[in-house]
Design goal:
The structure is a homodimer of 418-residue chains.
Chain A: H1 5-19, H2 24-40, H3 42-61, H4 67-73, H5 77-92, E1 100-107, E2 110-118, E3 121-126, H6 131-143, E4 146-150, H7 156-171, E5 181-184, H8 187-195, E6 202-206, H9 209-217, E7 231-235, H10 241-253, E8 262-268, H11 274-283, E9 287-289, E10 303-309, H12 312-322, E11 327-331, H13 335-344, E12 349-354, E13 371-373, E14 381-383, E15 389-400, H14 403-406, E16 415-416
Parallel strand pairs in A: 3-4, 3-6, 4-5, 7-8, 7-11, 8-10, 9-10, 11-12
Antiparallel strand pairs in A: 1-2, 1-16, 2-15, 13-14
Helix pairs in contact in A: 2-5, 2-7, 3-7, 5-6, 10-11
Chain lengths: 418, 418
């Protein structure tokens, strides 16, 4: 029996209200029990995954899905171990909820407290990566948010099995709210999710450019993510050629399909030995393109557009015009140029003599990553658990009224408290 | 000659990039010069306002605009003084840009810094209140954001005059970017603004419910604001009847058309002397409605819906169902009930023995108010200058590459720096 999407969304809202006051210890207990259960049921999960893989194999043969989708779909012992460890790691992180962000005495006995709290209901839309289910479920539990998951149809059996194990575990934990993590399956559910701004507070797409772009264009609900990763490296006139070569090779070849891989190399026209630099890149099997079809192509491969620019200013303008606001790096020995670059490039990450590949929540030390955002509001760059929180203001007094202040009988003194 | 909206948006984007590095002193100088210029040109502004008022008078007579719109449109000496003082006050506030929010050594020589920065381009849509122009312009200058303003057509002459004075002043300040503050006038411009997510990063509507609702429903750009203010007061069983009466009277009568005025009173069925409470409200000329057409009506007048509830839980559920997530208060002598109420009511402001009218940026001590937000992302409740900022991550190193870490040659140590 398929449920109506609005009913699912209402249940999620209820669950989000119910979990908002849940203690840290209960959440951590739940996370560790979920990890244990996944460990115990690994065999069942592999079996469900085999069913998905068998169906997907036929689709690869017929050309309906790519080989790389097939690979992402496949769970092996390593992925399973990482998946389970990921849940345990989230249990170890600080609780992002209930943090006092500000405490201020507005007047005698009138105390304002700004406290971090959950956002509410998250809508997660992802493609064929079944490990996302446990990761997002764990992040949701830790941050006290409800989630509605919509995975790729290719991983339907695996997704169902994993969520069944998670929800069976949660249902045995005292005081743990029902329906915190729900799953939907159809395209129609996605369409309804995107319209459901009464109940869903944040959409997080995990997938390719097309998916993210489609979602961003079709909802009024805030979306946390990035459609593309057009990252640049600008090699300034004064750059150390060895640093430039090493950083560009890392940024292009270490994992070419990552969103933080470099796509465009900008070189100052007065850089000496620029041909040495280019030759070193070719030696690392990077295909150089001097006249690309467009300057905002994400190759996802060992291909690199490059261009000579007349000045730092031209490099900055190129990046602000064609970049995606993700991560851009300058290679230079001129501190002033580096400062100017980092101030004026309008991207989530602005780097100086460093590979763009460092743009990652784990590398930044966040302990968990919700995703990477190119948004200009709420959360930008690699987003940790904090990105799944907002705050509320608590105000306590003993019969305080505004009239006393507007008539001048009383005055605010706004004294911050520890 | 009317400009194409996209050209205006592009210029705004350029201006936003140009101002992002502007020094605090230059911004404060600009603000004080703007205040001086408005003071010197008060006569010109009053004259422009008289032209608007004459046209509006005819529309009041024909019923096309309300008397209260007419009053909001009218600038008098007091409003002018407040308007100018508002600009000077913003000059005195801390610069919200360039604050170091986190500084962390990821590894030897690899330093991550999270720094506050402007959002970019703001679209401001407001109704007939010409004082908004100078306020928003001042907030934009201080927070280094570009703005495109669209005011009500009733105040067209006043708006044009005020912005002319502001922009003449800014154009004489060295290094101050052009086109930081631009204005558009037609409905078609609004439609284009709402679609312009390539260039506009945040929309802030300042006006009635209908305007805000329309905007929220018709754009993918993040919107900061609130459509309605359905605020509640719950008088618990253990409430002090005098505190309850005093707080409800303040919350309903001190300024009935404010968004933080109370609309619904919930009373615990076991409260003794509840009839005394109701009688005291009626004595203060509050019209009590026990069977309202709906529980989410914003009266904007001395009218109050009320209802007896069986429990704290029922009160919380009523508020989470019919409220607008703005501000809700409990009157009680039971600390545990107060805590439960403040944790479980899902609103920007959750109050305890205090009038809902305190929900305001100035009363919270923010020094300036961008607006009040019922969003669950980015900024919630009264929003100060901080709400017009986001952050970027700067990462500096000396040739650091990810490959060294993924191969285990190096390890992150993630040490926070002061």
């Amino acid at each position: 029996m398929e449920q109506n999407f609005i009913d699912i969304a209402k249940k999620a809202k209820q669950a989000s209200l119910a979990i908002s006051g849940l203690q840290t210890e209960v959440k951590n207990l739940a996370l560790n029990k979920v990890a244990d259960a996944l460990e115990c049921s690994a065999e069942e999960i592999f079996n469900a995954n085999k069913t998905d893989l068998a169906e997907a194999q036929a689709l690869v043969t017929s050309g309906e899905i790519t080989k790389s989708t097939f690979n992402r779909l496949k769970l092996d012992e390593n992925k399973m171990r990482d998946m389970i460890q990921g849940v345990r790691d989230i249990a170890k992180l600080d609780d992002p909820i209930g943090k006092v962000l500000l405490k201020r005495e507005l007047d005698e006995g009138l105390i304002l407290t700004k406290v971090s709290c959950p956002i509410g209901v998250l809508g997660i839309i992802f493609e064929a990566r079944p490990d996302v289910i446990s990761q997002i479920s764990a992040l949701a539990i830790k941050s006290s948010n409800a989630v509605i998951l919509k995975g790729g149809k290719e991983s339907k059996n695996t997704n169902k099995k994993i969520l069944e194990i998670i929800n069976n575990t949660l249902s045995n934990i005292e005081n743990f709210p029902k329906n915190l993590i729900q799953q939907v399956f159809s395209r129609d559910d996605v369409a309804q999710m995107l319209k459901c701004d009464n109940y869903i507070n944040l959409i997080i797409p995990r997938g390719g450019n097309k998916l993210v772009k489609y979602i961003k264009e079709n909802t009024n609900i805030p979306v946390l993510g990035h459609a593309s990763g057009i990252c640049h490296i600008f090699v300034d006139k004064s750059a150390d050629i060895n640093v430039a070569s090493k950083v560009v090779i890392d940024a292009k070849t270490q994992y070419p399909s990552a969103c933080n891989a470099v796509e465009t190399l900008l070189i100052h026209k007065d850089l000496e030995k620029s041909d040495e630099l280019l030759a070193s890149l070719q030696l690392s099997e990077i295909k150089l393109v001097s006249n690309p079809e467009a300057w905002d192509v994400e190759y996802g491969d060992k291909i690199l557009s490059y261009k000579f620019v007349n000045s730092l200013e031209e490099a900055i303008e190129h990046i602000n015009t064609y970049g995606s606001g993700h991560t851009d790096s300058i290679i230079t020995n001129d501190v002033e140029n580096a400062e100017k670059f980092m101030n004026e490039v309008d991207s989530a990450g602005v780097y100086y003599n460093v590979s763009t590949r460092f743009a990652d929540g784990f590398r930044y030390g966040f302990g968990a990553e919700v995703g990477i955002s190119t948004n200009k509001t709420h959360a930008r760059g690699p987003v940790g658990l904090e990105g799944l929180t907002i705050y509320k203001y608590k105000l306590t007094g003993n019969g305080h009224i505004v009239d006393d202040y507007s008539k001048g009988k009383k005055k605010f003194h706004h004294r911050d408290l520890k």
